[in-house]
Write a structure and sequence with these properties.
Blueprint: H1 17-25, H2 31-35, E1 41-45, E2 48-49, E3 59-66, E4 71-76, E5 79-88, E6 91-98, E7 112-122, E8 125-129, E9 132-135, E10 144-148, H3 157-171, H4 181-186, H5 192-200, H6 205-236, H7 248-252, H8 261-274, E11 281-286, H9 292-305, E12 309-313, H10 317-331, E13 338-341, H11 347-358, E14 364-367, E15 381-387, H12 394-408, E16 413-417, H13 424-430, E17 435-439, E18 450-454, H14 459-471, E19 475-479, E20 482-483, E21 496-497, H15 498-512, E22 518-521, H16 527-538, E23 544-547, E24 560-565, H17 573-580, E25 591-595, H18 601-612, H19 616-632, H20 652-668, H21 678-687
Parallel strand pairs: 2-3, 6-8, 11-16, 11-17, 12-14, 12-15, 13-14, 15-16, 18-25, 19-23, 19-24, 20-21, 22-23, 24-25
Antiparallel strand pairs: 1-10, 3-5, 3-7, 4-5, 5-6, 7-8, 7-9
The structure holds adenosine-5'-diphosphate (ADP) and magnesium ion.
């Protein structure tokens, strides 16, 4: 059978409809998909050992003769054993297979097989449990480096290797080389065909490294090229609203504090962009509590001064409402009209708000995703601000920006505020299309939060501490990791279901803190109730706020000085950093208590790393190392193509190299119009095909 890149997997021997379905789940439909289905690991099975000489403590290949027929026995219900004795010149090896009774017919006495597994030794008796094996004559899996693929139930590694081997043998050479030759030479990258063979079936680890390097480079290169194209395209769209420059001091007069140097710098950079006539695309990065909101307010104020509208989009209603209060307080004295848009407003409220927006009676619209919905039209949208950006994808940002485009055929300015300090590699990728202002300074007088990791036995002492804080006029958050849907059969360990959180809050109020006022906040609450609870807490009427993670992002109550996190092991470090960032916002010494009954050394080590530093960048690096980029954002969409190979905690150098190469290529050929660069353009388009509206 001849295989081309387009051959469907159903044409491969051994793939019927059931397996095809499972392969489809892995994203494999055609031979081309097999080529890019990369191994997650490799087994070095090049060396074949004798039974006696084989080392212990690692997996090894042993070639030996079956000395007898396999013996099947049942040790108890549901447990079957197949035993087999095999021999070579050096000795005997005793094999045991659990629950694979079909193997009793798989060995012929006197035949030679290669077994792969770890040898155990008791006295001089050597044995192996559940080895994989093949006939000595076949050697499909032995004498080589064997790829190990990510799998799904019903698809064995054996099958995957065999499918991919066929695809690689027949069509590794059919894919066009997409990287220009000069670029490959400059960066010492092996050709596409060789990389494709060697990433699956390398002769040695050097060949594997070369292949990995080429393919990782390629991945980062196309991604960078795409982001650079995006940025260039926007930069060259010459029309954008011009916000006339105004003195910073005029704005500062509205603030209850003097901005830090770092805030001033970010504000100046922003103002410069806003007056340039070209659409701004700027990211404001700064640790929690560094005062990013002030920069947003400055932008909205500048817009209003020049008669333009702004939109400020927040990821949760709690945060949208808080921003609404802050902006209103700050800007309405300056005549800026602020309105709130959330999904849960009544139809009549929405209608009124939309009409006001459309007729230009509103200068600043603060809201959630609701701002993106159909029917929300601006009269003169000049600036789009998204807060806590990593929750919004590139595509959502683009959608909001497009709202400005229609009536006045110019792009609005975009200001993005990052929630979490993120590692530099990741920032380059996710914000590769943005200019960056960094606020690397906290407002003066902040006292670093003290963090403690404690076990269940300290619970009563912790409650006493809450009372003591309340006695000094301070407030406390108690955050519970919760599933808000009722799962029926209870929540997974460590997670409380909503009912449990409610019960806990009631207990705290009635039994633990009868003299204090305890409030409860969770995602599924009616927005009005949420708003009521949040503002009661902000006004200091509640001393304790029990909450699910809706409190995680951005919420700002400077009088809160104690953050307690229940089942802290359930949270990622960056999330804990966000939670801790809810306290330490005022002048009081603040505390963060991580409660965990998990005794695993890994968990404790992780939490102690967290307790030992308040540097958000350090924490996010650590988080990235521990969880990998895929999980870094949880399941939240960041709207960018997935990276198959690049490991963002390790490939920093390759990333800068690829990024530089992409920029060089684009500055020489901005539209990728030259013949030898066409394949690059095609690959970039394909990579971003899930993110519509970006390249058309
Ligand atoms: P974040 O960067 O986490 O969004 P915020 O903008 O919410 O931080 O600011 C955190 C808190 O610090 C707010 O209460 C804000 O009023 C206050 N704040 C911001 N800038 C300053 C400053 N320069 N001096 C004093 N307090 C400030
Ligand atoms: Mg914020």
């Amino acid at each position: 059978m001849t295989i081309t890149l387009d051959t469907p997997v159903t044409d491969f021997p051994g793939v019927g409809p059931a397996r095809a379905k499972k392969l489809e789940k892995l994203g494999i439909l055609r031979a081309a998909d097999l080529l890019t289905y990369y191994p997650r690991d490799y087994e070095d099975r090049r060396r074949i050992w004798s039974i006696r000489a084989a080392p212990l403590g690692e997996k090894v290949c042993v070639s030996a003769l079956a000395a007898e027929r396999p013996v099947l026995s049942y040790i108890r219900k549901g447990m079957e054993l197949v035993k087999l004795r095999v021999v070579d010149n050096s000795g005997t090896l005793y094999l045991t297979f659990f629950n694979q009774s079909y193997l009793k017919n798989s060995f012929q006495p006197g035949e030679e097989y290669v077994f792969y597994g770890e040898i155990q030794e008791q006295g001089s008796r050597r044995s192996m449990v559940n080895p994989v094996f093949e006939r000595e004559g076949d050697r499909d899996f032995t004498g080589r480096i064997v790829p190990v693929y990510p799998l799904t139930a019903g698809i064995s590694n054996h099958l995957m290797v065999s499918l991919i081997r066929q695809a690689v043998e027949q069509c590794a050479g059919q894919g066009a080389e997409s990287l220009p030759a000069s670029l490959r030479a400059a960066h010492r990258l092996v050709p596409a065909e060789r990389a494709c063979r060697d990433i699956h079936f390398p002769e040695d680890f050097d060949a594997l490294e070369q292949a990995r390097r080429r393919l990782t480079f390629e991945e980062l290169f196309y991604l960078s090229a795409g982001l650079t194209l995006l940025k260039d395209r926007r930069d060259s769209q010459c029309s954008a609203a011009v916000f006339a420059p105004r003195p910073l001091e005029a704005f500062c007069a509205l603030l209850p504090f003097a901005p830090t140097q770092a805030q001033r710098r970010a504000m100046e950079e922003t103002a410069w962009d806003l007056a340039s006539g070209r659409p701004m695309n700027r990211l404001v990065q700064g640790d929690v509590g560094s005062g990013k909101t002030t920069v947003a307010a400055w932008g909205a104020w500048l817009a209003a001064q020049s008669g333009w509208q702004s939109a400020l989009m927040a990821p949760t209603e709690v945060l949208a409402e808080q921003h609404y209060r802050t902006m209103n307080q700050l800007l309405s004295p300056a005549g800026v009209r602020v309105a709130l848009f959330t999904g849960s407003m009544t139809a009549a409220e929405k209608r009124a708000a939309r009409a006001a927006l459309r007729s230009g009676e509103v200068d600043l619209a603060v809201g959630t995703q609701a701002l993106l919905s159909q029917g929300v039209d601006f009269a003169r949208l000049g600036l789009v601000i998204t807060d806590e950006q990593h929750r919004f994808g590139v595509a959502q940002r683009a959608a909001l920006a497009a709202k400005g485009a229609a009536p006045q055929s110019s792009s609005p300015h975009v200001l993005v505020m990052s929630a979490t300090p993120i590692p530099r590699t990741l920032a380059l990728i996710i914000y590769g299309d943005l200019d960056v202002s960094v606020i690397d300074q906290l407002p003066p007088g902040r006292v670093p939060v003290q963090t403690f990791v404690v076990g269940e036995s300290k619970r009563q002492r912790m409650y006493n501490f809450v009372r003591k804080q309340a006695g000094e006029g301070r407030q406390t958050y108690i955050v519970c990791p919760a599933v808000e849907e009722s799962t029926g059969d209870g929540a997974p360990p460590g997670l409380m279901d909503l009912k449990a959180v409610k019960v806990y809050a009631r207990q705290l109020q009635e039994q633990v803190f009868p003299q204090l006022r305890v409030g409860l906040l969770y995602g599924k609450m009616k927005p009005r109730e949420k708003e009521a609870v949040m503002s009661a807490f902000a006004r200091g009427e509640l001393q304790v706020l029990v909450s699910t993670t809706v409190i995680e992002v951005g919420v700002d109550v400077p009088n809160a000085a104690l953050m307690i996190v229940e089942n802290a092991e359930r949270f990622g470090l960056s999330q804990l950093h966000q939670l801790r960032g809810r306290v330490g916002r005022g002048r009081h010494q603040s505390y963060c208590v991580l409660l965990t009954s998990n005794r695993s050394p890994d968990t404790l080590a992780r939490l102690r790393v967290f307790a030992s530093t308040t540097d958000g960048f350090k924490i996010s690096e650590e988080d990235l190392k521990l969880r990998g980029p895929g999980d870094f954002f949880g399941r939240r969409q960041h709207g960018l193509p997935t990276l198959r190979l690049a490991d963002l905690s390790g490939d920093m150098r390759l990333l800068s190299e690829a990024q530089q190469a992409a920029r060089d290529l684009l500055s020489a050929d901005p539209r990728l119009a030259l013949g030898e660069n066409r394949p690059v353009l095609e690959r970039v388009r394909a990579l971003f095909s899930d993110t519509p509206d970006i390249f058309n």
